[in-house]
Structure formats: structure tokens, C-alpha cells
TrEMBL record:
InterPro entries cross-referenced by the UniProt entry: AMP-bd_C (IPR025110), AMP-bd_C_sf (IPR045851), AMP-binding_CS (IPR020845), AMP-dep_synth/lig_dom (IPR000873), ANL_N_sf (IPR042099), Mitochondrial_ACSM (IPR051087)
Organism: Pararhodobacter oceanensis
SUPFAM superfamilies given in the database record: Acetyl-CoA synthetase-like
Domain AMP-binding enzyme C-terminal residues, every copy: 455-533
Listed name of the protein: Acyl-CoA synthetase
Residue stretches spanning the membrane: none
Length: 550
């Protein structure tokens, strides 16, 4: 189902109604449909070593079927969980598609996760299979008992993977007679773990119908439609984040468009080289990446085929947007979404981009700003909760095995309207644009990563010098927000730059590296409520006030 491009946002959005969902659905049907053309290219993959692979939709179909046959032989069936921790390699897409084909629930994880992070995810979801690369198997240590252990031989370290089976070798001997499960809208397909303001990350269970919610995202935000056969879309996000799914699989492949992925360290000059060499037409990256790329000699590269850029996960500042347009020759289209609700607000090729604005709702999506008390839509320029009126196809089925936490996200007003509360505050202007006002909780959004303060604080409290601590968001020109830790020391320990560095290095070992505090301040005591709770908001407000005063 390809949607026509937007020509006039106000007119087309008002006239658009989301098609009714079919009785059953599987994203593999989309892949298999494009695979009927054996020449249609689906993926270009390259890495820092200079390796390159190209796969057609027909090859994606066949190889995913062979992997599905391996998983089925390992006992994986409908509803079973499969934990996937792979870097940006084609096998990530292939394993994800294979899991969808079987009706299994994929759990994508970034390779930066620590053994502690993985233990929590495995104990919470009880996956029947774990799939990773040899260099990562040590992280799973005693977590594999009773589970299929499969590796993709990439990046060396094969000697560490004794007792693990080679998924690629096993798949090579399989046939193609694997049935594609017919999934219902109430059945899960994905679990992404996302951080909250308290406690451990929550497992967001997305429906097998989640790709259908990307039709508008693909057609209107990425501008991919029936005229897009020659497009190449490159999304740089890590495989453990939902933006990777959006930009390297579902978004482009719904439109039959070639995706490009690159496995290698971030290098702004390399980004430009790849865009020019492969004729990338749609480029999706974090806002901080665009800022770094602007530090290069952009004009020395041929970017004439680049027609659209997209970003999400962190705020795009006006100077970066303007400089990119002037030097790269195309606009950056920012969008807003959540793992729980996917992309819901964006900027489009046919609309004005107001620097600093989140954008306008995706056509067909019932999203608004509602009041704190009555939970009804607010007039222009009043701050309230960003909320989505139910039902909405693509909305999460719930937090994994946490019905109370799920229900806490929803409210029903006196009109009988049921709303999902995102936890973000905003206002709308007279033209309907949403403007972000901040979080209603303590979640930190740093360079596109959502980090709960409790995760950071839990890691820091294991340091022998720390008596108490609080982690908050602090404004940062490059990353939007960074993690700042306020630390109270035990007696006998003195504040110093050396101790701050030691605490940072300790945090990197205790938890995923993106969660370490980039800034540390030592206090004699933390601000607290009368009941003894740390007043993180006071610390956060202090940081933002100081930044404004500069």
C-alpha cells in the first residue's frame, strides 16, 4: 500500500483517513511482494574495513526464510521471544524478518549493553533464543541455560564462542518451505526496552501490526512513495533503537526503497563520503551528527542527489538547520515520537519549517495538547500534555508484564475520550505546530538516548566513595541534554577532578557507556522533600537557569 505524496498539508491531512486494518497482517508480506521482482535491490551494506554486500528483496525473503527454519528447528514458535544483539550488519535485518515470519517476538538490543543490562532483559522476557556475534558472548555468561545460542560470525572472536552454533552455517542448509504466520492486531512482534523516570527500563510490547503505522511516516516524513524506486535511504541509528527500525527497515521497505547501512565508528567525513559515493537521497541521523558534519568541508563532496534529511530523538537547533540547508542544499525534517507510539509529529517537504518547532501531526493521527485537570484539548498557546486519542493503530500493546504501569499512561475524560499521555509537555501555535516545553518526569534525553535517572544513580551508588547521588538533565549545545550527577561523598573522601574522572570511568563499567554522567558536581547534601525524596526537578531547573544566564 503506497500512499500518494502530500501536496497541500492542510487540505490533504483533513481529507485523509487511515485505511481500516486487515483481519491478519505480517510485515513479511511486504518483503515478499517486492521480492517478485528479482532485480529490486533492498539493501546496501558496508563497513569501515571496506567490505560491501548488496541484497535484493528476493534475497532478503529467501535468506530470512532459511534463518526462520533454523529458529523453528530450535523450538521457536508464535509468541516466543528472541533476543537479538547484533551490530549494523545485514543479519540484523534478516533475523528480525525471520522472527516476524514465525510470529515470534524480537527483542533488539544495542551492543553497548552490559551483562547487568542483559540479565535484567533476559530475566524479564525469558527469550528462547539469543543471537549475537562472537565478541559479545561473554556478556551472557550464565544467562544461556535452556536457550538456543546462535552467533553470526562477524568481527572476530570466534574462539570465545565455544558452545554457540553458527547461525549462518545452519541457515545455508535450510530450505524455503517456511510458512509466514498470519498475525492478529493483539499479538506482539517487538519488545523495546525504554527508560523511565524511576526503576528499571520498561519493555514496550509493539503489535505485529506496528509496520502499518509507518505508512504515513514513510510517505509523508521521508517522502517515499510510488515515485521513489531510485531512492537510497541511509539511517545511522544503532540496531537496538526503534529509530533504526524506522530508517533502515520498515520506513524504506514499505515503499520498496533501497536501504543503506554502515558498520563503523562515527566519522563525519566518512558520512559525507558515503552520501556522495552511493548517491544517498534520504539521510536520517541524530541532530548531533548533523552538527559534527557541519564542521567538515561539505562543499568538497557531491551531495546533489541528497534531497531530504530526517532527525528524531533530540531537538534540532535553528542554527544547525539553517547552516545545513545553506551548505548541503536540503532541509532537515525533524520528527517527534516515542517507542510506545512510534512517530506522530513531523515536518514535511510541503510545509514550512519553523526552527524549534516539533512540527505538525502525521495525517490521520489523533494527537493534541490536553489539559492537566480535565484532559481535554487546549486552545493555542496553552501548555499541556502531548497526548494521543485512542484507538490508534501502532500504539503499544502495553509494557511487558506490567499492566499497572501500562494503565498509568492512559486517562479517560468526562467526554469518554481515552488518551495516551506521552509524558511530554508542549503548546500548539495558531498554525497547529507543536512546540516542546519539556518532560513532565525526570527522563534525560541525551543525543537521542532516553536515560532514566534511576539507572545512572543505581550504577553510581556502587562506587565506594558515594553516599548519595542524583542524576538530572543539563542543557548542552551539542547533545541537547547531557547527564549531570550531583554527588554527596562518604566521610574520608574529598572532592577532586581526579575523583570525578574515576566516578565517570566506574559508571562506564557498571552500565552502558551512553549512561555515564558527562558532568559531575559535588554537594554537601542533596535537596529533598519533607518525606526524604530527592528533588531532581530543583537540580534540573538550576542547570537550565544557569545556562540561560550565560
Amino acid at each position: 500500500m503506497l500512499l500518494p505524496p502530500l501536496n497541500d498539508y492542510a487540505r490533504d491531512a483533513a481529507a485523509y483517513t487511515r485505511p481500516a486494518p486487515p483481519e491478519t497482517f505480517n510485515f513479511c508480506d511486504v518483503i515478499d511482494g517486492y521480492a517478485e521482482d528479482p532485480t529490486r535491490e533492498a539493501l546496501i551494506w558496508l563497513n569501515a574495513a571496506g567490505d560491501e554486500r548488496r541484497l535484493t528483496f528476493a534475497e532478503i525473503r529467501d535468506q530470512s526464510k532459511r534463518i526462520a527454519a533454523v529458529l523453528h528447528a530450535q523450538g521457536i514458535t508464535r509468541g516466543d521471544r528472541v533476543l537479538i544483539m547484533l551490530p549494523r550488519i545485514p543479519e540484523w535485518q534478516l533475523v528480525m524478518i525471520a522472527a516476524f515470519r514465525l510470529g515470534a517476538i524480537a527483542i533488539p538490543c544495542i551492543t553497548m549493553l552490559t551483562p547487568k543490562d542483559l540479565r535484567y532483559r533476559i530475566e524479564a522476557t525469558q527469550p528462547k533464543a539469543i543471537i549475537t556475534i562472537p565478541s559479545e558472548v561473554a556478556k551472557f555468561d550464565d544467562l544461556t541455560e535452556g536457550r538456543a545460542k546462535l552467533i553470526v560470525p562477524y568481527g572476530g572472536g570466534q574462539a570465545q564462542a565455544q558452545g554457540w552454533e553458527n547461525l549462518v552455517s545452519l541457515a545455508a542448509g535450510q530450505g524455503l518451505d517456511v510458512a509466514t504466520e498470519r498475525m492478529r492486531p493483539d499479538e506482539g512482534a517487538l519488545i523495546y526496552f525504554t527508560s523511565g523516570s524511576t526503576g528499571q527500563p520498561k519493555g514496550v510490547l509493539l503489535s505485529a501490526y506496528f509496520p502499518r503505522a509507518y505508512y504515513e511516516c514513510s510517505a509523508y516524513w521521508f517522502d517515499l512513495n510510488e515515485q521513489s524506486r531510485g531512492d537510497t535511504m541511509w539511517g545511522t541509528s544503532d540496531t537496538g533503537w526503534s529509530f533504526s527500525l524506522t530508517a533502515t527497515m520498515v520506513g524504506p521497505w514499505l515503499a520498496g526503497v533501497r536501504a543503506l547501512t554502515y558498520d563503523g565508528p562515527f566519522d563525519p567525513e566518512k558520512r559525507l563520503e558515503i552520501i556522495a559515493r552511493y548517491g544517498v537521497t534520504v539521510f536520517a541521523a541524530a541532530a548531533s551528527e548533523f552538527r559534527h558534519i557541519l564542521g567538515q568541508d561539505i562543499e568538497a563532496h557531491d551531495l546533489t542527489r541528497l534531497r531530504l534529511c530526517a532527525t528524531a530523538g533530540e531537538s534540532l537547533d535553528g542554527p544547525t538547520a539553517r547552516d545545513w540547508m545553506r551548505r548541503a542544499g536540503c532541509r532537515i525534517h525533524e520528527a517527534y515520537g516515542q517507542t510506545e507510539a512510534l512517530m506522530v509529529i513531523a515536518n514535511y517537504p510541503v510545509t514550512e519549517i519553523k526552527p524549534g518547532a516539533m512540527g505538525l501531526p502525521l495525517p490521520g493521527l489523533p494527537i493534541d495538547v490536553i489539559s492537566e485537570d480535565q484532559f481535554t484539548a487546549l486552545p493555542a498557546n496553552e501548555i499541556g500534555h502531548v497526548a494521543i486519542r485512542m484507538p490508534m493503530e501502532g500504539m503499544m500493546l502495553g509494557y511487558w508484564q506490567a499492566p499497572e504501569k501500562t494503565e498509568d499512561c492512559f486517562v479517560t475524560n468526562a467526554l469518554g475520550e481515552r488518551w495516551y499521555i506521552t509524558g511530554d509537555l508542549a503548546h500548539k501555535d495558531a498554525d497547529g505546530y507543536f512546540w516542546y516545553e519539556g518532560r513532565s518526569d525526570d527522563v534525560i534525553n541525551t543525543a537521542g538516548y532516553r536515560v532514566g535517572p534511576a539507572e545512572v544513580e543505581g550504577a553510581l551508588m556502587a562506587h565506594p566513595a558515594i553516599k548519595e547521588c542524583a542524576a538530572v538533565a543539563a542543557p548542552d549545545a551539542e547533545r541537547g541534554e547531557v547527564i549531570k550527577a550531583f554527588v554527596v561523598l562518604h566521610a574520608g573522601h574529598d572532592a577532586s577532578a581526579e575523583l570525578a574522572k574515576d566516578i565517570q570511568n566506574f559508571a562506564k563499567r557498571e552500565t552502558a557507556p551512553y549512561k555515564y554522567p558527562r558532568r559531575i558536581a559535588f554537594l554537601d547534601e542533596l535537596p529533598k522533600t519533607v518525606t526524604g525524596k530527592i528533588r531532581r526537578k530543583e537540580l534540573r531547573d538550576r542547570e537550565y537557569a544557569a545556562a540561560k544566564g550565560k
